[in-house]
Amino acid sequence: MESIFTYFETIPAAHRAILLVGGIMFFWLLEGTLPLFKFSYKKWKHAWPNLFFTLTTIIINFGLAFLLLKSTDWVAAHNFGIINWLPEIPLWLYVTLGVLLLDFFGAYLAHFVEHKVPSLWKVHIVHHSDHHVDITTGNRHHPIESVIRFSFTILGVLVVGTPIAIVFLYQFLSVIFTQLTHANIKMPRKLDKLLSYIFVSPDMHKVHHHYVLPYTDSNYGNIFSIWDRLFGTYMELDRDNIVYGVDVFPDAIANGKISELLKQPFKKYQKPTAKF
Ligand SMILES: [Zn+2]
């Protein structure tokens, strides 16, 4: 565990880049051989806006990285945050708790708030308005959303008190899970179900991309499914019944245009068609 901790403390930027790009390539190929849905779409044409938003997310995270480092330095210097206030615990438990709680504050909470506050939902719609969820959808986030999510990560670091090694480990796992849960791949149902007891499984996250409530407002989790199970936001819907998109933005052509997607947060709020 100590060597893992040390590795992530100084993980080379190249390793992070290889994980992101290699992961996209790996799942892209897997989608060709083992697809969940047989989409009749032009894969590259569909990918282009999503890759654009992946790039803006990377640029924003890179540009703001100094704030993350400042936050981790501050909590370490002041011994601040939940995991530092606990009595002496083994390193593996310290790391596990750090990742678990960072997943709550930095991802689950951020995502939940984005769905519940109308002005933030209009920003987050860009992620949901993809009619063909695949490996490229994972980081399809409006630049404003990238800033919102980054702010929640900082909040998580401050509240949880995570050192930089745990933040980098968390981000590493987060990339893997974002790719696994969005990729258009068919995982055996039983394995998917088994995985979903602790982790967010591919089918579990696909339910969140169903076009209509109450499913859109469920399964907010990023790495661990336990937050959804704990707070009652866990839902199931058979993969055969899933229809991707957002009920109030059904225009597939507009939803594939970068210029339209960039304007999305400034459009008028529209009430969902179904309310439960
Ligand atoms: Zn969402």
TrEMBL record:
Keywords for this protein: Lipid metabolism, Membrane, Oxidoreductase, Transmembrane, Transmembrane helix
Lineage: superkingdom: Bacteria
Species of provenance: Bizionia argentinensis JUB59
Residues covered by the Fatty acid hydroxylase domain: 99-233
Protein topology in the membrane: Multi-pass membrane protein
Transmembrane residue ranges: 13-30, 51-69, 89-110, 150-173
Main location: membrane
Recorded GO MF terms: glyceryl-ether monooxygenase activity; iron ion binding
GO BP annotations listed: lipid biosynthetic process; membrane lipid metabolic process
Annotated protein name in UniProt: Sterol desaturase family protein
Annotated localization: Endomembrane system
Keyword rRNA-binding: no
InterPro entries: Fatty_acid_hydroxylase, Sterol_desaturase/TMEM195
Gene Ontology cellular component terms for the protein in this record: endomembrane system; membrane
